[in-house]
Amino acid sequence: MVRVAELAIVLCYFVLVLAIGLYFRDRRSADEYWSADGSIGTFVNSMAIFAAFASGGTFLGAIGIVYDLGVPLWWAAAVGSVVGFLVAAIFVAKPLRRLEMHTLPDIFDYLYADGRINLLAPVIILVGYFMYMVAQLRAGGLVSDYLLGIGYLPAVTAIGIVFIAYVALGGMWAITVTDFLQGILMWGLLAVIWAISFGYFDYSLSAPLSEAPRVAGTGALDIQTYIGFALIWAFAVAVLPHIAMRAFSAKSPESAKRAYAWVALMYILVTLPFVHIAGAAISIDPDLAQADYALLLVMESILPEIIAGFAAATILAAVMSSTDALLLAMAAAVSNDLYGNLVDDGASEERIVNMGTVAVVVIGLLGIVAAWNPPTYLVELYTDGTGLMAAAFFFPMILGIWWKPMNHHGAVAGMVGGGIAYAIAYFYTPMFGAIIYAVPVSLICCVVATWATEARSADRIEQLSEELGHDRFGW
């Protein structure tokens, strides 16, 4: 069944974001396309980072997790995310922005200048982010099917093409403006649905736990799953390429740091309504075939039609705000990092940006095909992709910035060791448990390989101290 009012609102929103992409289509320099010329203010950047992070997976997937497995599991992820943004604000944001680069692999190239890392980092990003993107496209397909009634496959294909179009056209400028608008919409959605779900339980904070006890979810899963879910996000935020690109787009190092800190506070607030929303879904229908439909069920059951239309548009906005950033980060990995750094380091800026545009289209189309038959839980899919990047990148990044002896041999060992350990542990541990073993392996590999080889020279340490801003800390 086509929901006419909801569909009209969403189509208007699609026209708006495509118009934004067209407006910025002529801003094609590398600085503009990849990092919006480093000119985004703190408030806009905070909202854009929040929108890129609090994705369709957060709205559909997280509420689905609470509906099926209980709120403690999601609270573990929320705590980990807040810790992750604080770690990123303290240790990463300002050094990244000072370097005025475009991508995370650019930072690794600056720190280590090793061809093996220039190949490893983009490949790991492509693998991890492809899983992440498929989860977002699935969320978009679910909502589009809810609106159009045409079936999941046509819906996910249509929504994917819209994403591809405005990212390919406008780059970082387009996704910054659209993500800012999407962040505003997402806060509005939360306020409306929480208010109505809160009213559903007669404005009681504890009623969902008593009337829908499955929400409590205590003891439902292995303890490694709860710990792992928190650790993945605690380690990942500082090294997520699409979040790092937001640091590059900030107007100053201080602005980048403040934006990360503000998002930490936002993420505390964003998780508060999930108990009531999932509890309402359980009360309405405790036996959904797909838990990721829980939010849509609440919208359909208790929201007025016009409000449901705005809510559906907002969920698609949440999906877009992550998918666009993921697409741009993967395109940068292909054109800027793999091609520009390894294949043709003399390629013109125009050629690299044009290749990035083509990469957006190709990767986006591959993601649409993969999203035709994705795994059951949205959150599980994109968290595993994130966990792989956290295991491979966290210590090579943090130690590269803050530990004087750290060298390229240690970074290679840390990336390979952490990535392989995560891939192996994935098959032998409970859900999300692989990170518990993979991150220590990465740290050990970094330290042992650095100690076994020649440390950075004194001249290189002095250069890093000046360019990264460590002189104030006596580094």
TrEMBL record:
Domain of life: Archaea
GO molecular function: symporter activity
Record-linked Pfam families: SSF
Keyword Transmembrane helix annotated: yes
Keyword terms of this UniProt record: Cell membrane, Ion transport, Membrane, Sodium, Sodium transport, Symport, Transmembrane, Transmembrane helix, Transport
Keyword presence, Ion transport: yes
Transmembrane feature ranges: 6-24, 44-67, 73-96, 117-135, 155-177, 184-203, 223-248, 260-282, 302-331, 352-373, 385-403, 410-428, 434-453
Main location: membrane
Location in the cell: Cell membrane
One GO term of the biological process aspect: carboxylic acid transport
GO CC terms: plasma membrane
Membrane topology: Multi-pass membrane protein
Family: Belongs to the sodium:solute symporter (SSF) (TC 2.A.21) family.
Protein name as catalogued: Sodium:solute symporter
Source species: Halosolutus amylolyticus
